[in-house]
Amino acid sequence: MWSFFHKLGSPRWFYQISGRFLPWISVTAVSLLVVGTIWGLAFAPEDFKQGNSYRIMFVHVPTAMVALVGYYVMAAAGAVSLIWRMKMADVVMRSCAPIGAAMTFLALLSGAIWGKPTWGTWWVWDARITSMLVLLFLYLGVIALYEAYDNKVAAGRACAVLSLVGMVNIPIIYKSVDWWYSLHQPASIKLTEESTIHSSMLQPLLFTAAGFYLFYATALLLYIRAELVFREQNTRWVRDLALGKRD
Amino acid sequence: MPMHPQRKQRLMLVAFIVVFTSVAIGLMLYALRGNINLFYPPAEIAAGKVPQGASIRAGGMVVPGSVQRGTDDLSVTFRVTDYQAELVVSYSGILPDLFAEGEGIVAAGVLDEQGVLQATEVLAKHDENYMPPEVADALAQSAEASSTDYGQGKTPE
Amino acid sequence: MYFDSFAAFLHMDGHGVFVWSVYGSAVLVMSLLSYLPLKRKKSTLAALASTLESCALSNSSESH
């Protein structure tokens, strides 16, 4: 366990092992996304009330889920880098921010586009949507804070504290539709009871959801690898990599 | 497993940050809980908890059979209910596609002296149920056969 | 397929604009998320290679 932890902390080891897994993860992600999307767009039946506009769900729900889970990944990496001063954790935390921001943006955008034909408005300041906007600002805040510092060690610590503080927002987003009256409906996929989505619509959603999770993993690895190469420029293995020597 | 005292200290710091902000934000949300609601249910409006003349939002289910449309314009009046009280809403404009009797809505506007909400915006609030039309028909038929409840959009399962 | 024709599939009873713009923006954002880190890594390595090569060149010319 500890040797694995230490290996994980080695940039060179991480670069090599992630390079081996990347093709598999990315190909699986794209296949799941393609199958789920075609299924959801062309083969799933329309909804009894919303008609075809509900097909936005196959993008909206997974991006929102990944945006929330991705924040926990970022905050956990931040905690590890604060406590153990592990360089790899700092790289992971920094790499999480742009992907999380992009996923949150997609969730908000698809929600707005879905809201127009169903609710009759693009935007409403209800608890769910506002707390999701706060999540976008938290992600953007981490990116901006990191760029604002010249000393990248101090930048990493400030970002880790910010992501830990912002963690309180995640359960608020999740439970907002149950705690307060909001325009957004409660969750349809439930862990403890039967989901309120018919199985013909739930199945493609599970495909796109799995696809988005693996896409998140792919993008995260790509960002981590780019950051590693940038930070380790002065090491032998990156120089060999640059000169095209097999590592 | 022994832990380096300095790391332990940092771990405590991280735990403190998380717990402190959670408690602080939690208390704040608890204090603000009424204000975070997007809309008032009709029961609270009937109880006089809502200021007259101020811009508010009210939400509930459109009472079946209560929708009356104007003959020559887009005006419409209907009642919304939360099963405890009812509220009359008057609105003039285009209603969203999902507006229907027995469906949830949120209306924004001002309460007049008669306790009627003069709405400037009506939004449809859909629920968490998704199913194909055939399934919905079948469910409606079986529900009709078993009971004649308030015909709302919840699944009878 | 659930739809009767390809035109119906694109139109989606008037909701096509909404649905397709969501899927279009998702494809765009996700392509950017994959392309940007790859480009960054490539340009870092290229810049590093050119400085290393120029160093090596200047070193070898000095030694002659």
Short description:
The complex is a heterotrimer of chains A (247), B (157) and C (64). Chain A has one domain (15-242).
List the helices and strands and how they pair.
The complex is a heterotrimer of chains A (247), B (157) and C (64).
Chain A: H1 2-8, H2 11-43, H3 57-84, H4 87-118, H5 127-148, H6 152-166, H7 169-179, H8 199-231, H9 236-242
Helix pairs in contact in A: 2-8, 3-4, 3-6, 3-8, 4-5, 4-8, 5-6, 5-7
Chain B: H1 5-31, H2 33-36, H3 42-46, E1 55-62, E2 68-69, E3 75-81, E4 86-92, E5 104-111, E6 117-125, H4 133-146
Parallel strand pairs in B: 4-6
Antiparallel strand pairs in B: 1-3, 1-5, 2-3, 3-4, 5-6
Chain C: H1 6-11, H2 16-63
Uncertain spans of chain A, ≥5 residues at pLDDT below 50?
A: none
User: Separation of termini of chain B?
Assistant: 51 Å
Q: What is the typical, i.e. mean, pLDDT of chain A?
A: 91
How many structural domains are formed by the residues of chain A? 1
Structural class of chain B: alpha+beta
Provide the succession of SSEs of chain A. Answer: HHHHHHHHH
Give helix % range of chain B: 25-40%
CATH architecture grouping of the largest domain in chain B: Beta Barrel
Could you say how many structural domains of chain B there are in total? 2
Question: How far is the N terminus from the C terminus of chain A?
Answer: 26 Å
Extract low-pLDDT stretches of chain B.
149-157
Note the main sheet of chain A. none
Task: Count every beta strand of chain A, where a strand is a DSSP E run of 2 or more residues.
Answer: 0
Strand content bin of chain A = under 5%
Helix-strand topology string of chain B: HHHEEEEEEH
CATH superfamily of the largest domain in chain B: Nucleic acid-binding proteins
Largest two-chain interface: A-B, 43 and 47 residues
What is the approximate shape of chain A?
A: globular
Quaternary organization: heterotrimer
Estimate the strand proportion of chain B. 25-35%
Strand elements of chain B, count: 6
